[in-house]
TrEMBL record:
<keyword id="KW-0732">Signal</keyword>
<feature type="signal peptide">
    <location>
        <begin position="1"/>
        <end position="36"/>
    </location>
</feature>
<dbReference type="Pfam" id="PF00496">
    <property type="entry name" value="SBP_bac_5"/>
</dbReference>
<protein>
    <submittedName>
        <fullName>ABC transporter substrate-binding protein</fullName>
    </submittedName>
</protein>
<dbReference type="InterPro" id="IPR000914">
    <property type="entry name" value="SBP_5_dom"/>
</dbReference>
<dbReference type="InterPro" id="IPR030678">
    <property type="entry name" value="Peptide/Ni-bd"/>
</dbReference>
<feature type="domain" description="Solute-binding protein family 5">
    <location>
        <begin position="84"/>
        <end position="458"/>
    </location>
</feature>
<dbReference type="InterPro" id="IPR039424">
    <property type="entry name" value="SBP_5"/>
</dbReference>
<comment type="similarity">
    <text>Belongs to the bacterial solute-binding protein 5 family.</text>
</comment>
Length: 538
């Protein structure tokens, strides 16, 4: 079966399930009690499996974080950091001393005031895990509390993007927790979900694999500015949010059609034409730039501990086949994107892409031979509950087999994959070699924020790349004060990335969220957030 036929078969199966689900409507009525009109029911790309947005880089932890926490700064729709919990800041002329003052009246869900000590403890915990936080911490000489409302950061060396760092919205996003919670070691999961954000998590009603419940925070104090991207007023327009688990796309389609859910973040692209014909359903791209499929290699285990083996994969991947298999229509894809920092952005670059315009299996085989690949089993982790990831995995696995790699696809769900990818052991002891993930422009839109580009040798995210030259170039980029010089450095960074291959960009595409037409306030926010959304009576 060809790679395109594999994608067609997957889509045919999805249509069959859809037909059965639509015939079986209403799909949730037998178990779900009647709800008030101010309840918003949503299905996101994956279920809530952990509530710690620092210990986990998974999207579900970030989505949970935006509901219950607030940020010191937040990125607006143009990617600029705006004050969020911060009321004012003072910066020395040389940019080395920063004095931050919280805006007054902020309170946690338990009624305790938000203090500077909470902010400092939250920054310190976040900086242990996140690529941006580590970069800021490495440039920081001192961070301390002045009083309940004020704290300072003094830099030991240039760092041009302090506010951008404090607005970190994804990977291990920077959210402010109570000091006692933030003192939990970053290697341990927190157990409290007390934040100061617009919604309160009902931990006692959380059932993994079923649903998570959030209630409007009546004491939340929004900013006066209008909502803009992830910044501005976070006004809760509904009284209750139910994050529901419906892993089967056809069942989710039926629930949306019947009005038993209100919002579906990631319907498979192949179902978009059907959704477009449904009454009372709308579609909108909340991420205008789109996402990239990323192939992550384990740099610590053979054969991909050799850069030549990683370079071989670049020459085997067909982005067209990946996007075809995922059912991405022409209008929602970039036909081929070799830019690590996304096509269609100011940092788009073609540097280092020479010879990669189309697959070259012969060159791939030659590189594998140079790397000394001995035919050993290669474990490719597969998240079958994420349609795009699953389709991309199957297509790439077949392409890698054709260049002589002994690929073993291990199919599981995304929550299990996120746990296993942290294992450093050899594959014989439960380790892994490859997995696919999908990142948006907040995950990888520049050399500082790109979580899988960072190659720090010690620490780092699953895959653990080590590239000292790439790290030097990244540091030069985020220390540089001149935007024009930073832009010139992007080409050098991308050339080095194509030498070391921390991950492989495997296709850029746009998705559209589907939602009931009585929802108001859906905005382009890149990641799903639910303040500013209200629900009109049907």
């Amino acid at each position: 079966m060809s790679m395109r036929q594999m994608g067609q078969a997957a889509r045919h199966g999805l249509r069959s399930k859809l037909a059965a689900a639509l015939l079986a409507l209403p799909v949730l009525a037998a178990t779900a009690p009647a709800q008030a009109e101010t309840t918003l029911r949503m299905v996101l790309r994956n279920d809530l499996a952990t509530i710690d947005p620092v210990a986990s880089t998974a999207t579900f932890a970030r989505n949970h974080g935006f509901l219950v926490y607030d940020q010191l700064y937040a990125l607006d729709s143009k990617g600029k950091p705006r004050r969020q919990m911060i009321g004012s800041e003072e910066v020395s002329g040389d940019g080395r001393q920063w004095r931050f003052t919280l805006r007054p009246g902020l309170r946690f869900h338990d009624g305790a005031p938000v203090r500077a000590a909470d902010a400092v403890a939250s920054i310190r915990r976040w900086a242990q895990r996140d690529v941006v936080g580590r970069a800021l911490a490495a440039a920081t000489a001192k961070m301390e509390v002045v009083d309940d409302q004020t704290f300072i950061i003094e830099l030991s060396r240039p760092f041009a993007l302090v506010k951008q760092a404090l607005a970190r919205p994804t990977a291990s996003a920077l959210f402010v927790m109570p000091e006692a919670v933030a003192q939990t070691p970053a290697t341990e999961q927190i157990t409290s979900a007390v934040g100061s954000g617009p919604f309160i998590f009902r931990r006692d009603q959380w059932r993994v694999g079923d649903r998570a419940i959030y209630l409007r925070n009546p004491d939340y104090k929004p900013r006066e500015e209008a909502a803009d991207g992830l910044a501005g007023a976070k006004v809760a327009g509904v009284d209750r949010i139910e994050w529901i688990s419906i892993p089967d796309p056809a069942t989710a389609m039926g629930a949306l059609s019947s009005g038993e859910i209100d919002y579906w973040e990631l319907p498979p692209s192949d179902l978009v034409p059907v959704l477009e014909t449904m009454p009372n359903v709308q579609l909108e791209a909340i991420d205008p730039v789109g996402s990239q499929v990323w192939l992550r290699m384990n740099h610590q285990q053979p054969p991909f501990n050799d850069a030549r083996a990683r370079q071989a994969l670049l020459r085997a991947i067909s982005q067209t086949d990946v996007l075809d298999a995922a059912g991405i229509p022409p209008e929602d894809r970039v036909e081929r994107c070799g830019a690590f920092f996304y096509c269609g952005t100011p940092l788009e670059s073609q540097a280092g892409t020479e010879g990669l315009e189309r697959p070259n299996p012969d060159a791939a085989r030659a590189l594998l031979k140079e790397a000394g690949y001995d035919g050993r089993r290669v474990v490719f982790l597969d998240a079958a509950d994420l349609y795009t990831n699953h389709a991309a995995t199957l297509v790439m696995a077949e392409a890698f087999r054709k260049i002589g790699i002994n690929v073993d696809v291990v199919t599981t769900d995304f929550a299990t994959l996120t746990a296993r990818r942290n294992k450093r052991e050899p594959v014989e002891q439960g380790g892994w070699n490859l997995f696919v993930t999908v990142g948006n422009v907040l995950d990888g839109g520049d050399p500082l924020s790109s979580l899988y580009l960072a190659s720090p040798c010690q620490g780092g995210l699953a895959g653990w790349p080590c590239d000292e030259k790439l790290e030097e170039l990244r540091r030069a980029w985020y220390q540089e004060q001149d935007p024009a010089q930073r832009r010139r450095l992007v080409d050098d960074i991308q050339r080095q990335a194509y030498q070391g291959v921390p991950y492989a960009p495997a296709g850029q595409f746009r998705t559209r969220a589907a939602f009931r037409s009585n929802l108001r306030g859906i905005r382009p926010t890149t990641v799903p957030v639910f303040w500013g959304i209200s629900k009109a009576a049907r």
